[in-house]
User: What shape does this take?
Amino acid sequence: MLRDHLISAAHLSRDDIEAVLDHAAAIDADPGIVRGRHAGRVLALCFFEPSTRTKMSFETAMKRLGGDTIDMGAVESSSVKKGESLADTVRVIEGYADALVLRHPSEGSAKLASEFVDVPLVNAGDGAGQHPSQTLLDLYTIRENAGLDDITVGIMGDLKYGRTVHSLAHALTEFDVRQHFISPESLRLPRNVRYDLHETGAEVREHTDLDEVLPELDVLYVTRIQRERFPEEREYREVAGEYRIDNEVLADASEDLTVMHPLPRVDEIAPEVDETARAKYFEQAHNGVPVRMALLDGLLGGDT
Amino acid sequence: MSDTDKELRVSKIRDGTVIDHVTAGQALNVLAILGIDGSGGESVSIGMNVPSDKLGLKDVVKVEGRELSQSEVDVLSLIAPEATINIIRDFDVIEKNRVERTESVTGILVCPNHNCITNADEPVRTAFAVLEDGVRCSYCGTIVRGGDVAEHIDAHGSGETAL
Assistant: This one.
């Protein structure tokens, strides 16, 4: 089980992942096995940019473990506004907490912060970089619905800036997974992620058209194409419309297709899909709590 | 080419370092890596696009009164992998070494990703892992291909490398 910082999914071995997922499944089945285990311990939530799901699920996870959370609040009301460095901020907060969760708008921020603290630090999103705890809950959801070996996964949307995509792509290389990436040319996977996938020998293909690959997929992981990435609203509309799924688009998909999304969605998945058995994105979000309980339990040294 | 021409281009120095077989066009970047901008008073000679049997064309950099540190030599391997380092004392070559490939470079390159935390005002030095054909930021993962590395040299940085 993980005992150190969690900075990048690229650092997770298959054994690490399976240990967390197995522990999460055990907690899911019987939350009583960890009830009160971390009473008196404190998790610091350091969110330098807005978050709803990630922050609340970490908070819930820690409280269900019997511990408590502290929150630095909005950046506008914190010492960051006075120009304090990230390094100083986490060094101070380390003195108040047993572990830190960091969300920050700059790539590499979690790695930098981890160099200044001794308590475990979890990267909860560093700019367009990585979001490894999201990946653990994504993998948990995939395992529950499709298994994690000998499957074909399509990842669609903003692959360039989507940190959940970068982490998931890395982690899937630990399993027997065929990966297909579907995006506009301008939002293809960044060079460093493609480099890593190539280095691992992963079976990867890139597409601009979902139809090319949809019938083969066991999992379709949809991400939001972010309006703010486009200089013109018209360009965004043209592209975003191409990557919207509804029941008609999914007509050629496998009956057992699992549709996932890290949320929030805007209009890339039509609400009518919610009513089908394929829609797993709310289940995926709910899985964040047991998975983060398992992760924190390991990082805080309570799983043995 | 006459002997006189050759002598002009490759005139001897008394004490210092001759960096030979530098990739053509990289001589000024070599000076940047060494932190030499003329303000330190070193006597420097540069030959650019000099004919070379080995490389076709090469650059040569000669620095009077200065021997390179190992870390400086290692950083040179990023932009001049074929370079040879000749240490000169009293007009004689007393040591001749090839540059060696390093595993990482610290504090000498600026990450081109403006959103990388190393470009914020944080108490941290840049760090790059050396790849087969380029370098990679150890913080944000951005990859800089070999031919583009020189564009990201921080002339004011002080390099450190790790083997």
About this structure: Chain A touches chain B at residues 83, 85-87, 104-109, 111-112, 115, 126-129, 191-193, 195 (CB under 8 Å). The two ends of chain A are 9 Å apart (CA to CA). Chain A has a mean pLDDT of 94. The longest strand of chain A covers residues 42-47.
